[in-house]
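Anyone able to model this chain together with 5-O-phosphono-beta-D-ribofuranosylamine?
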Amino acid sequence: MLKIVVCVSGGGTNLQAIMDAIDNGKITNTEIMAVISNNAHAKALNRARNHNIPALCLSPKSYPDRAAFNEAFTEKMKKLSPDLIVLAGFLVAIPPAMVDAFEGRIINIHPALIPSFCGVGYYGLHVHEKALEYGVKVTGATVHFVDQGMDTGRIISQKAVYVQEGDTPEVLQRRVMEEAEWVLLPQAIDDIANGRIPLPKKNL
Ligand code: GRF
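re: yes, here you go
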């Protein structure tokens, strides 16, 4: 059984896609141990609670500085000790110590085809605004392993989505979510849970 912790910051539609996929059997051999958000008001936390999944808030605002938050966040994750950490719309930089402790065991969904429209400042709606501004005809989403960089880890999977005439950032974001994110992330988790994508040995 693959034990996962899902980290969220906002609406939680990717979390919902994961929970639904577990319920309908598209994801097997997987258990969500907990959902963690940096944002106490994240709708994603209510989605977890409605699914009887422990929902925790760990906010940088509750700590004197980022170093203290990073330490608390990392210690909490070590105590939970999941097999896999899934970043699903999580907007906080992962502490370097957590990346080290869970090397090769953290995945992220990015709403663009990395290496396009990624890195510092490229998150949420802003990604789609930039894609439309540039005038790309095709965008999409990427699932990748998380390393010490921002959106730089080894790519696991990608799915292309066509930009349509008259798209607004909101319309494009929704299409990328529906056609790419909500497909790729559950698929990646199921592939990991069933050994089609190998994980490194757990750091003791
Ligand atoms: C969305 O912009 C999504 O593209 C990205 O994170 C944001 C929030 O997603 N992955 P969610 O609805 O909280 O899963």
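Helices lie at 13-23, 43-50, 66-80, 96-101, 125-134, 169-193.
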